[in-house]
Amino acid sequence: MTIHCCRTICQxxxxxxxxxxxxxxxxxxxxxxxxxxxxxxxxAQELFISQPSLSESLNKVEQEFDTRIFSRTQEGLVPTxxxxxxxxxxxxxxxxxxxxxxxxxxYRQLRKGSLTFGIPFNLGAYLLPxxxxxxxxxxxxxxxxxxxxxxxELDKLMLSGKLDFSVMHYETPNEAIHYDLLxxxxxxxxxxxxxxxxxxxxxxxxxxxYDLKALEQEPFLMVASRQKLRQV
Length: 232
What we know:
The chain is α/β, with parallel strands linked by helices. The chain has nine helices and seven strands. Residues 9-22 have low confidence and may be disordered.
């Protein structure tokens, strides 16, 4: 018997936020840097852009709002009343963007988030007490949920997008599902000694399909027919 970890091949696409800033974010950063240095020259040096480019960005922002963000004085560029409000808002926006980028990066790297997986009843009783405590110790900020069901139903839940992955017994593969082998287990045929003597089965011998054929008229206690373990 093989135990596989399965996940759907066609997964929803989650766009990744790239590093750096968009044009609007650049403009916010430019204005904050100008406010810090009060000159285009020093601000451009810190931003590693040319002075004409920075001046053009400042003019563009002021034209967009149809008002001055900075007053041109002998002490340099000083924020106007409107400019003070603009700069305060710009700081809040950039702080939130950086927090968003950090949170999403932690989510991508499994430092935060949630995980939902499926597992058959018999495997869950055996594996979950061993796996979950170790996982939660390594990833304390990830919320883990699991659904126990037979493998056939877990396939349906996974294909409908309700599970991130499943741990199940292997059967005929579904083309929409990717399988990774986790472990292999042996099947054991348990019977009374009288029955073993009747069919001349020595202890702990590997049985062939022909040996099992001899037992086809004997009553068996097996798992439900809808479970993949029964189908194996």
